[in-house]
Every structure is written in C-alpha cells, then in structure tokens.
Amino acid sequence: MDLGIAGKWALVCAGSKGLGKGCAQALAAEGVNVVVTARGAEALEATAAELRAAYPAVEVRTAAGDIATPEGRAAALAACPQVDILVNNAGGPPAGDFRDWTRENWIAALDANMLTPIELIKATVDAMAERGFGRVVNITSAAVKMPYEALGLSNGARAGLTGFIGSLARQTRLASRNVTINNMLPGPFETQRLISTMAAGAQRSGQTLDAFLDTRRAVNPTRRFGDPAEFGAMCAFLCSRHAGYITAQNIVLDGGAYPGTL
Question: How far apart are CA 92 and CA 114, in angstroms?
Fold first, then answer.
C-alpha cells in the first residue's frame, strides 16, 4: 500500500532508540524526510547514519538535545523545514511510591510526558491546518487504560495528555483541515528500556534475567514482546493519507494484554 506521504517532513522525538526509532524507520521507508531528536548525540548520529544508508532518497537530519526543555524544542523545530508529521515521544519517569515523590518529581514528569507534547503541538498544528495536511502521533503507554501501580508519575502525566488530546483533536478547525491527532499506547515492546526495567525486576525477585523475561512473555496472550518495527508500521499508517478519518483515538498495542472491551 502506498501511504501517500513521500516527500513530507516528520519530526520524531526520542527517535534514536526503541519505539521512536521504529517510527523513524517506518516513516523513512515511506519516503518521508525525518528530523530525529534525542539527548544522546552518539546514538542519535548512529541512527541517522542507519537511516541514510537504508533510505538514500530521503533527507535525515538530527537535533541533539532534551526535547523537554525550551532549548531542545527550539533546536528540533529549527531543524525541520516544515512539520507535516509530529511524533511526540519521551522516556517515562521512574517507578516508585508516591510517598517518596517530591513536587519537583511531578513537575519533571509533567514537563516530559504532558507539557512538552502540548508545546510541540501548539507550535505546529495551525500551520498543518493551513496546508491542509497534518498528522500528530503521541507515544504514551498502555498504562493510560490500565494503570500500573508503581508508575504513578507516568500514569498521571500521560493521562493528563490523553484528556487534553481528546478535546483538541476534535476541534473543527483542525479535523476539517485534514489534521489528525492520535495516541499510541504501547504495552511491553522489546526495547533497551524494557530490558533494563526487567533486569531490575529480576534482581528483586532473585531470578535470572532470562527466566524473568520468559515469565513475563508467558503472561501475554501472544507469548512474546512486541517488535518496535510493528509499532513503527502502525505509526506510519496513522500518518498516512489513508488515516484522515481516524482522530482523537487511543490505540493500544499490547498483544491483547488489556482485558477490557473499550
């Protein structure tokens, strides 16, 4: 299927690894020029080199910096000639007990996982509407629908973003001008972050990492973790010309782990 987005420009946040990288790869494969951001310059440039080698027909630019800061956002936006596609993404805050979290912990979580996406959307969607095309995909978490006990910081910040998007995406001045805004809610995907989180869990439980991973795979209906390439493919479809009637949606990608119907 031709997704109809070749030649567009995408800004992919936290795109040097994991799910963000999967999205950048899928978009570049469709002929989309990409600007990839990340805090780690070395991993960022390595990913950019991979993309350039694999997809020589597209332009790949980088913007090293913390997207949760005004300076990081300004650098990312400056690197992108025009933002036709915005993929919002940032690392989640640490797990823990809410009794131990300070106001500063909460502000940091909100900055990274709620306020930064809103700032980037604010900076781009009106121009998208003027051009008659725009796609915003926010990478949040399956915890939005099924909160995890130890991830209160993430649950709270991402739920706040979800509520905001529910109202914004339905604005006629955006939706009627072919600008869609959707959230992708990943469950367990095989990324470096998942492995590091699982390693900590294995240590607490006294199991080996391999045994702990096998146990976690076994409780998923698919008996496996997701592949970031699968996630990227869904992101690319949501950004395609075929997805203009899909907006304000929360799309769970978790191998069927969420037990609800809605």
Answer: 11
